[in-house]
């Protein structure tokens, strides 16, 4: 498994999400705030995850599903819990000073034990089923936790596929192809026949990434998967764009923005496809990795910076620039504190450093 030049792309996608969240908070009412940059970026992250997980499983974990799952949880949970801790502390300080203000929300009792425990488990599936998580009374200190929850759902599905597919051995690839077809069919039912679960909306993005890896690994059948997944993803994105990020306007004006948004998604997916065939070493690899290491911490921690600046009454371009610099700086500290030290553990589980 070679290092892929995804790092700078991941950084750009993370900053698209962060700036898209910050712009309306700081009073912008233009293309920065109204165009769904964040929705495009999050869905592209799902495509990237599909590729990266498929490659990791195909290279290291075919016969080690529990090692795969443990390694993915090490990647996701400790950085999330660190961001949660920092966010709670910042909220306490702002609350004690009487300056805490939360954009477009008026939550109560945010420091209750139930809400804290719900935050700890918010990125794990079925938390509502065990009575901890209640959406109506929940306040997320890591506000955009939902995309992480979708990622974890996908990791668990991949784990179950590897766990059950191990008994097929030489027929594992056809088994995976059958699973992809089945999940795409479930997605179509969920979108156009009868809603089942909201998480199923995101299936084509992940399957697109998986099929891109399959194509790069030499499977011609994966080309069909790419085409079907891309069509399903584009349709789902266009039909559900108001849930991803509202597009202002109506009629032709709105249709144009929707078309541009789908086009933007396509451009980034093509970039993923092209970059999936790149390999790097030396200084280029180091630079790309440095930026890539910041992407997940930026996603996790930018809400802390956003809430702090909003509570202090910051607005305009100055606030946006401070927010951008602050989010990158906090992400760098978080990466140095958790992600980089854990890399050695994850490399040991994987059996190879990347």
Structural write-up:
The protein is an all-alpha fold and 354 residues long. Helices cover 72% and strands 0% of the residues. It contains 13 helices and no strands. It has helices spanning 7-25, 31-34, 37-61, 65-96, 113-120, 146-165, 172-192, 203-216, 221-239, 241-244, 251-275, 282-311, 316-350. The longest helix is centred in the last third of the chain and has 35 residues, at 316-350. The chain is globular, with a radius of gyration of 20 Å. The termini are close together. The model is unreliable at 247-252 (pLDDT under 50).
Compressed to H and E, one letter per element, the order equals: HHHHHHHHHHHHH
CA distance, first residue to last residue: 8 Å
Would you tell me the structural class of the helices and strands? Answer: mainly alpha
DSSP strand count: 0
Radius of gyration: 20 Å
Q: Counting H and I runs of at least 4 residues, what is the number of helices?
A: 13
* Global shape: globular
Low-confidence stretches: 247-252
What percentage of residues falls in helices of 4 or more residues?
over 70%
Major sheet summary line = none
Strand content: under 5%
Rounded mean pLDDT score:
88
């Amino acid at each position: 498994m070679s290092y892929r030049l995804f790092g700078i792309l991941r950084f750009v996608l993370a900053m698209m999400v962060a700036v898209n969240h910050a712009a309306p908070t700081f009073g912008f009412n233009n293309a920065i705030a109204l165009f769904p940059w964040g929705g495009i970026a999050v869905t592209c992250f799902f495509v990237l995850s599909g590729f990266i997980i498929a490659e990791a499983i195909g290279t290291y974990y075919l016969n080690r599903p529990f090692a795969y799952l443990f390694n993915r949880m090490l990647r996701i949970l400790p950085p999330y819990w660190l961001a949660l801790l920092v966010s709670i502390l910042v909220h306490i300080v702002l609350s004690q000073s009487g300056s805490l203000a939360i954009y477009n929300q008026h939550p109560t009792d945010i420091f209750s034990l139930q809400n804290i425990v719900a935050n700890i488990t918010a990125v794990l599936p079925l938390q509502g089923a065990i009575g901890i998580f209640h959406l109506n009374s929940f306040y997320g200190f890591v506000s955009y936790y939902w995309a992480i929850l979708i990622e974890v759902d996908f990791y668990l599905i991949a784990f179950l596929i590897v766990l059950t597919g191990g008994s097929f051995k030489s027929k594992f690839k056809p088994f995976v192809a059958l699973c992809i077809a089945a999940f795409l069919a479930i997605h179509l039912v969920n979108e156009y026949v009868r809603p089942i679960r909201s998480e199923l909306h995101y299936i084509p993005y992940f399957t697109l990434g998986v099929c891109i890896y399959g194509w790069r690994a030499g499977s011609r059948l994966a080309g069909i998967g790419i085409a079907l997944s891309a069509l399903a993803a584009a349709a789902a994105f266009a039909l559900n764009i108001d849930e991803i990020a509202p597009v202002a306007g109506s009629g032709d004006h709105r249709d144009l923005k929707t078309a541009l948004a789908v086009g933007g998604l396509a451009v980034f997916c093509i970039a993923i496809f092209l970059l999936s065939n790149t390999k790097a070493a030396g200084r280029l690899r180091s630079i790309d990795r440095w930026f890539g290491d910041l992407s997940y911490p930026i996603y996790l921690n930018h809400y802390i910076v956003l809430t702090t600046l909003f509570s202090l009454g910051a607005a305009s371009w100055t606030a946006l620039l401070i927010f951008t610099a602050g989010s990158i700086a906090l992400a760098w500290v978080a990466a140095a504190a958790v992600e980089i030290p854990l890399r050695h553990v994850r490399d040991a589980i994987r059996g190879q450093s990347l």
